[in-house]
Amino acid sequence: MAHNKTMAFLLPRDTAVVAPGAVHVPDWLSVDRQRELVAACRQWAAGPVPMRHTRMPNGSTMSVQTVCLGWHWVPYRYSRTADDVGGGQVAEFPSWLAELGRDAVEAAYGARDESYEPDAALINFYDSSAKMGMHQDREEKSLQPVVSLSVGDSCLFRFGNTESRNRPWTDVRLESGDLFVFGDESRLAYHGVMKTYPGTADPALGLEGRLNITLRVTGL
After folding, report:
1. Is 219 a residue whose pLDDT tops 70?
2. Is 2's pLDDT higher than 90?
3. Which residues bind Fe cation (predicted)?
4. What is the domain extent for residue 141?
5. 137 annotated ligand binder
6. pTM above threshold 0.90
């Protein structure tokens, strides 16, 4: 069984258009780049606004832990200060991460767009039990594409339609290093993480769990 599992990871996975404007690019990040992102996320998670479980308006808390760059996300708005966790100033959005976002959009859509300028990142950490329900990314005034980078454990990602949380949807297994971009007709599609697969991360990353780094253009 172990041999078969190893062989499965070696099989090539092709770029796929999951829906109009939604593209999955497997194995986009090298292991070295993933390790750099893990190190950067650890720094961001420590502050100035630390990673936390976001409290929802109904009083519940999200199972994922989140830290933000550029703009702080509070359900359902953005702020320059983390008013829900002490009011600290949000860490700056680094220029190298914006450049990585432009590279990602080019990889997904096949054309370079130098005007793509993400100014906010939501970095979510999933432990073995964390999930994220079906939702839309609609707090942004801009409808420029969302760039999603996966590092660490694999997950079952569900990408739905723009009308409701119900079917039709497509389930995609996202592995460490995968890129997922959604814009155009799919920019406001519902999506979520149904489960993670503990222990599937490359040990070389030194990470237990899954990091999801999403880059957005707020238009603010």
Report:
1. yes
2. no
3. 135, 137, 191
4. 30-130+137-152+205-216
5. yes
6. yes
